[in-house]
Amino acid sequence: PTECFLSHPEEKQESTVKAKKRKKKKISDVLQKSAPKPGVPADLQNLLTQHFGETRSVIEIEELQLSDSCFLPANDLTHSFSSYLKEICPKWAKLRRKHQEKRSVVMLVLCSSALRSLELIKSMTAFKGDCRVLKLFAKHIKIKEQMNMLEKGVFHIGVGTPGRVKALVEQDALCLNSTKYMILDWNWRDQKLRRMMDIPEV
User: Fold this and answer.
1) Structural domains of the chain ordered from first start
2) Is the pTM of this model over 0.85?
3) What pLDDT, on the 0 to 100 scale, is given for residue 128?
4) SS percent in the chain: helix, strand, coil, step 5
C-alpha cells in the first residue's frame, strides 16, 4: 500500500511537467498575433551598432551612422515589389539607359535565399523594362561564372544573397561605385520564420 501511495504524487508531477512543456510559445504563434511591421532606418542602425559595438571604437561606430537622407521610404506593406520599385525609382528608364559600366549594377537587391531571389526576380517584371538582371546567389551557379558574366556584360539589377555578394565584392568582381539603390528584403520570413537579419551569418 505504501508503494502505491508514493507512486500517485509522482504521476501527478510528471503530468504537470508535460503540461508545462506543451505551453511553450512558438515563434509562429507570436507572429500570428502580431501584424508584420515595415522595416525602418532605425532597425538597420541598431543592428549595425549591435554587430560592431564590441569590436569598434566609439569614433568608428560614429562613422557607421547613416543619415536619414541615405534611406528611401520603406515598403509600407501595401505595395507589390514592382510598384514599390516604381515609387522609389521613378526615373529608372533614364538610369538604365545611362548605365554602361561592366562589373557593376545600378540596383542591388539582397534576400535571404536563392529561392526568394528567384521569387523577387519574377515579381519585378512590371518594373524592370528592357534591362538585364543578374542572379547573385550560390545555388547551381559557380562564382567564376558570375565573375565572367560581370566582366563581359552590362547588368542593371543584381538580385542575390549577402554571402555571394560579399564574396564577389571581396574579389573585385563586383564594383559598387555605380550602385544607386540597395534594397533589403527585410520583412520576408523563411520556413523557420527567420528574417534575413535573424540569420547570424548575415
Assistant:
1) 72-198 (3.40.50.300)
2) no
3) 79
4) 50, 10, 40
